[in-house]
Write a structure and sequence with these properties.
By secondary structure, the chain is an alpha/beta fold. It has a single domain, classed as TIM Barrel. Helices cover about 45% and strands about 15% of the residues. Helix 7 packs across helix 8. The structure holds iron/sulfur cluster (SF4). Iron/sulfur cluster binds near residues 85, 90, 161 and 209.
Length: about 375
């Protein structure tokens, strides 16, 4: 393969040949800003060569976001843990009538929001289980109430799986459901529920959940109707490297078509209190997934190292392995914590900023759509840059 002049220079200046162990062609593509194919992604995982994957991912990350690393002031609300599905990896769901089951009334949700009205939160993130009895009007009323309480805040609400469920319980088409939610005030979808697309894996993890094709079709509809979304990938359970890369490729194909994804979020499986009884992947694998995500998803601007799932130290290091966002203040989280996440359920702005600063990056407060709200000058990153 013929290298451009710039690539030739970068390649010889930065990368001693001995490091590559057969990944030279992938390095050349990255340095030449060319798209990796699925085999490339697979070979990166298979090589286990984290230094090279990390170096290349960081090269691409800095091309997109420079020395910036993003966080958001957000409030997470999980309105019910009652769910008709019983996904094997999920420690959050309960059956109706279980001692630990709960459903927040609209008044409970109002109180949660009012408790934080004095904070400059830019996003409210809402997801919950698929409740057997709540009518579609409960969700619409929830959105109206939030819009009234927080008119300037982006409402990022309901995973694709919930949207499809609302369509079933209301008898309305997915388009009608989205249109009513938009009219009430929703501006984005969180993008969860994708899990891992391979049918073999879904059969083990979540046989009752909508199949990958449906997840992609509903997401495509949302994008076409003007709603931006994130996309997640749950990894570290029973999937193969090839299945991880295929998942990323399916997201990338849809992004080519719609340009509707804002952020890609790899989420490590949390092993406690669920039927799958797997084990937690290690930091090495977490960083490799972040790096390969950055390299494969050349058409999604941002890769998130979600501190709640990864732990703050791993999220911090991930900023040097392709990711440029660590999520936010959160305030209250149940889904990952029920499954054994040992992190806190909230972080202050100064804790988030200090994580970023100590990693040598410049903290930038963002909104849901990565519009910059506040850039904090970072002495450390300035020093490192010079
Ligand atoms: S992952 Fe979601 S759909 Fe599956 S059981 Fe848990 S709450 Fe229900």
């Amino acid at each position: 393969m013929k290298k451009s002049k710039e690539t030739e220079q970068l390649y010889s200046n930065l990368l001693p040949d001995a490091c590559f162990s057969g990944l030279e062609d992938i390095a050349e593509k990255v340095l030449d800003n060319k798209r990796l194919n699925s085999d490339d992604g697979y070979r990166l995982f298979e090589s286990g060569n984290l230094p090279v994957a990390g170096f290349l991912a960081n090269f691409r990350r800095e091309h997109v976001s420079g020395r910036k690393a993003y966080y958001i002031r957000n409030q997470v609300i999980n309105y019910t843990n009652i769910c008709i599905n019983r996904c094997a990896f999920c420690a959050f769901h309960r059956k109706k009538g279980d001692r630990e089951s709960y459903t927040l009334s609209l008044q409970d949700i109002r109180t949660k929001i009012e408790d934080h009205l004095n904070e400059p939160i830019s996003e409210i993130h809402v997801v919950g289980g698929l409740h057997p009895d709540l009518p579609f009007s409960y969700y619409i009323d929830m959105v109206h109430m939030m819009k009234e309480l927080r008119p300037g805040t982006v409402l990022k609400m309901f995973d694709v799986v919930e949207i499809e469920y609302f369509s079933r319980i209301s008898g309305l088409s997915v388009e009608h459901v989205i249109s009513q939610l938009k009219e009430a005030g929703i501006r984005a979808l969180p993008g969860g529920g994708a899990e891992l697309f391979a049918p073999r894996v879904r059969k083990i993890l979540c046989p009752e959940k909508i199949p990958a094709e449906k997840w992609l079709a509903v997401t495509k509809t949302a994008h076409k109707m003007g709603l931006k979304t994130n996309a997640t990938m749950l990894y570290g359970h029973v999937e193969t490297f090839r299945e991880r890369v295929d998942h990323m490729a399916a997201i990338r194909d849809l992004q080519d078509e719609t340009q509707g994804f804002i952020n890609f979020i790899p989420l490590p499986y949390q092993p406690r209190h669920n039927r799958l009884k797997g084990i937690r992947t290690d930091a090495n694998d977490d960083l490799m997934v972040q790096a390969v995500s950055r390299l494969m998803l050349d058409n999604i601007a941002h890769i998130k190292a979600f501190w709640i799932y990864l732990t703050p130290p791993v999220a911090q290091v991930a900023l040097n392995y392709g990711s440029d966002d660590i999520d936010g203040t959160v305030i209250e989280e149940h889904v990952a914590h029920e499954a054994g996440a040992e992190t806190k359920s909230a972080m202050t702005v100064s804790e988030l900023e200090s994580l970023i600063t100590q990693a040598g990056y410049e903290p930038v407060e963002r909104d849901t759509f990565f519009n910059e709200i506040r850039v904090t000058e970072n002495e450390n990153s300035a020093i490192r840059r010079n």
